[in-house]
Amino acid sequence: MDRNKLVFANWKMNLDINSSTKLIKEILCRNLNYKNIDVVVAPPFVYLSEINNMLKNSQLRLSSQNVFYNDNGAFTGEISHEMLKDLGCEWVMIGHSERRIHLFETNEMINKKIIFSCKKDFNVIFCIGESYEERQKGKTFDVIKNQLNESLKNIENKYLHKIVIGYEPIWAIGSGSIPDLKDIQETHNFINHHLNEIYPNCDNLPRIVYGGSVDDSNIDSIMSLKNVDGVLVGSASLDCKKFCDIVLSVGK
Ligand code: PEP
User: Fold this and answer.
1) For a 10 Å CB count at each end of the chain, is N or C smaller?
2) Which CATH architecture best describes the domain 5-250?
3) What is the mean pLDDT of each run of 10 residues along the chain (252 residues)?
4) Which ligand 1 atom is nearest residue 12's CA?
5) Among 40, 13, 37, which residue's Cα sits nearest to residue 24?
6) Taking the domains of the chain in order of start, what are their residue ranges?
């Protein structure tokens, strides 16, 4: 089945209101053709509303960088799916390694967030990946298998087409260099193989995208790999030219 490629921009906790709106304006001015490709931006929560107004009539889609697993109530500092819908979000990012490390998010919490997001009809980018130490000890596949098993627990087949797996080796994020292509290939093949094991005979398995120091100079080699359905971009998504060049490469 032919599926759209994905370019997902994770702005993290960067930019301010002026630089955020300037960046979106610049991207929109490039008038990129998004045929057969989903392009999604995830700004900080507080700029979603302003950016949503700018994206009306555009093909760029909006995501949050996090969400909670309850509708409302005594959950100080959290944000619900309905709130995100009000701000124009159709996507949520769940399980980013920075949230696992700094906010102590567990696979169990991530699982609840994915289940809730699916029921609320959101598209989900669900991040997984090993640390440097885990890779050095040869534990990459065990870690990834565990993250997939625990976080996708009880998720029905009918929701899988709304989920994208973002494979991000933690040690490659923000490092300026990507792993050997053969290692990226091997891990994407493993993820694809394991998804087929969890969901046998399923023709709408999650797409798998790579993240970690993707930029305009390495995008073509990453996209030449099998089982790579797109990219998750951090730093380079804050630069209009680099980001648009990535979108053009993925879309060609
Ligand atoms: C990320 O943290 O999601 C990411 C991909 O960051 P960078 O591109 O800066 O490595």
Assistant:
1) N
2) Alpha-Beta Barrel (3.20)
3) 90 98 97 89 98 95 98 97 98 98 98 98 98 97 98 96 98 96 98 97 95 98 98 98 97 90
4) 2
5) 40
6) 5-250
